[in-house]
Amino acid sequence: MSNNAAIVDISQTANKFRSSIVLQAENKYIDVKSILGLFTTLVGNHAYELHVHGPDADEAKGAMAEVFAKHNLNVTVVSE
Questions:
Q1: What is the CATH number of domain 4-78?
Q2: What's the rounded Cα separation, in Å, for the pair 49 and 43?
């Protein structure tokens, strides 16, 4: 099974926003705008946490939650 479609979708969605969008997988932090970072991280069925900070964070959180759900990835958007 390949996550390529999910990775491209997630990265493209993240790049629409100015906010910093960081995915936490266990003890690793990955910039979601980096396709390479996602390739090495989106493996297996981890529970991920998404940290979003910036001027359009609210919009970004909604969009990212949608794209993760669309690809059946278990992500919690952390509200800080």
A1: 3.30.1340.10
A2: 14
